[in-house]
Amino acid sequence: MEGGTSQGVKSRTSSSAPQWAKKLASRNSQTRIAPATRVSRDSLGGANNKTLKERRSQTPTIVGGNYGKVEGPKSAQRGGSIMGTGTRPATAAVQEDEENSDTTELQKERRQTLNEMIVYVVFVSLFTIIIFLSRNNTMSFEYTQTLRDNLQIGNLFQGSVASIDTFWDYTEDVIVPLFATDALSNDSTFSYYQEGIFVHGNKLMGNISMRQLRVNGQPCRDVPGYDPSRSCFPEFKDSLSEKVFLKGDDSSPKQQSYPSAYVYQNASDLGEVRVAFQGGFSNYPGGGFIITLANEEDAKVKVLSLQAEKWVDMKTRAVFFDMVFYNDNLNMFCAVRLLFEFLPTGSVRPNPQFRTFVLNRYQWSSIRDYVVAILEFILVAFILKYIVEEIVEIAKGGIKPYLKQFWNFVDWTNLIVFGVVIGMRLRTTLEVIGFIADPSLFEAANLQTLGWYFDQEQTLNGVNALICWLKVFKYLKITRRMTQLSRTITKAIIDIAIFACVLLLFVLGYGVFGFMVFGTDNPEYMTMTVSIQTLFRAIFGDFDARAISQNDSLLGPIYLFSWIMIAVALLLNMFIAILTEAYMQVHNEDKERGSEVTIFDDIKKAMKKRYNALLKRNEEQIHAIQELKNRLEYGDEDNDGVLTRDELEKVVKDIDPQLLEGYTVDDLMQEVDMDGDNVLDATELARFRDFLEEKSRGFHEERKKLRT
Asked: Tell me, what's the pLDDT at 346?
């Protein structure tokens, strides 16, 4: 051992080595283990003498340049002998290869899912941004509220219009004055307001139209005391709609100051949409008997004439007031439709509707317009991309496996709704271009139709936004924990279906009871649908105990208390118990499967790998600085007290410049050589050592930050 060691030292201190290496090797040889403390080969090996190579193969070693990483013998890792000459069993090798292949495939799948999720989140965020940039809900609300206040909508719901007489009073006191000039119109300093009719700065576009729908008389039931030949007038149905204006005795009106008001016009003639308008008690088509009000004087005369001629009578079932306002400050239109439903009971019920929209959405007058247009173009590109992906998936996997996936139906629903919205957008844009080219089209009926399309587009966008955000659950399947909700519902689906049947029985029973007992006095049980809605609201504490007690002081409290006890104490807790049991089963399954490698584990692993690489490089930099400091001590080969450039080059020869932050020999010489003679004297060497010490402190500080 000693001979071999001394021979190794001699070889390391041969004349071919640099002077600093000779001195450094000599110092290291003095610090070697003393002979008295060395262990003999026999004591290491015992009866089984092992060679030094064998012992080193079994001893964990520091891999060159990989500080902090300990590796055992590779032969042991491969399953062979210590020397690495053994071979693995064929079955174990195949099994290990299969496991590695499966792991790689799972990693690829997780990464692909993560990439798809990131792209989809970008898509949803883009769609949401477009929605918010395209709407100004605050000003839209205030604009609508201004018109609601001016039309006294609040008073309408408080019963200000409850009969035919009060209907005409409202027409004279509220509708006709809309044509009168207001304070803004009387201000001569704003000449713009002298050019039309304005309501608080909102210009009335075109005329106000009145449209009436009537029903034909039907034979009445035979009741003692009534003339059997009389006619009755039921609720409105399209099949019972009157197309020829007749009075109660089936005679034509004797007095017709405005004959056009007594002629029925179809929806197509009026430019109305073919979709029936949904009122509170019936659905009404777009046709009817119509008359237009052009200005204040014209409105006064026509309203008084129609009232005198009893244009509205027992046959009347609906009267619409249609008007459109425009606010130039906001560039917003508001299509107003006031529906008054005349019920067979003799009462009148108001049903107003306000549709606020921007007519020309592509004015190119601001950066915002360009941004929205560009984002919409990108959104359409995304939609086309997803359509192509769905088609490719069908082509590759076949239609049957494709239809077995629930999320594929959601995807197509989403894409179809987007397609409908794009079609509506193209239609409305073309119509707006026509409106701009021909200002005479700015009539109430035309703008009402356009407002209907805008309203449907916004509704579909809202539905799409809901679907898009719920579809994020599709990409949360990357971990079992994130799919616990869907898996819990899937596991409990049968129990939930049975529970739903039980709940339906109770809801139908209590709903029918409330409808039959309280429906004539309490509006919350007026219809079967409303009665069921009231029951579900009561589950969450929204109920009027006083009102139901006033309807029936005995049955009311019993009905309400028993429903609360059954729905909350029994049914709701049963539903929670079903979900809890299913969740526990899912949780136990996850527990039995053990830890699962997820995409987040892959990310964590990658981050840890990056961290270890940074830490390793930092330690190598510290080691390189220390090595350079040690070499610098013996770098002066000729012992002249100075360090030439050639001597410095030998010192740093085999040290990677990247470990010194890219400093080369020339950079180091330029950094510390103050007089530029390519020779480092004692002062400059001290400056060099300070420079190295400063770099060492910086690397140590960096290591502290990495480890905290």
From this structure: 87
Q: What is the pLDDT of residue 430?
A: 87
Q: Which residues of the chain have pLDDT under 50?
A: 1-16, 20, 30-88
Nearest one of 446, 372, 449, 483 to 132, comparing CA atoms: 372
Please report the pLDDT score of residue 58 as a whole number. Answer: 43
Pair 702, 618: CB distance under 8 Å: yes
Distance CA 76, CA 92 (A): 15
Distance separating alpha carbons of residues 321 and 290, to the nearest angstrom: 10
One-letter amino acid at 672 equals V
For residue 320, what are the β-bridge partners? 211, 339
- How far apart CA 636 and CA 648 sit, in angstroms, is 9
For the entire predicted model, the pTM comes to 0.65
Among 223, 385, 209, residue whose Cα is nearest residue 286: 209
Q: Are 650 and 18 in contact (CB under 8 A)?
A: yes
Where b means 16+ CB within 10 Å and e means fewer, 570-605 reads ebeeebeebbeebbeebeeebeeeeeeebbeebeee
Tokens in use for 231? 């006619």
**Nearest alpha carbon to residue 306 among 245, 250, 216:** 245
Position 211 scores a pLDDT of 94
Distances (CA, A) of 36 to 4, 42, 43, 257, 496: 16, 15, 14, 134, 82
| 8 A C-beta contact, residue 379 and residue 126 | yes
CA atoms within 13 Å, Cβ hemisphere of 61: 12
- At residue 313, the 3 state secondary structure works out as coil
DSSP track, 222-250: --TTS-TT-EE--S--GGGB-SB---TTS
- Closest alpha carbon to 445 in 210, 168, 170: 210
* Joined tokens for residue 281: 């008690």
- Which pLDDT value is given to residue 655? 78
Distance CA 224, CA 221 (A): 10
Beta strands in 162-247 (DSSP E): 198-199, 202-204, 208-214, 218-219, 231-232
Angle, in degrees to the nearest 10, between helices 573-593 and 484-491: 120
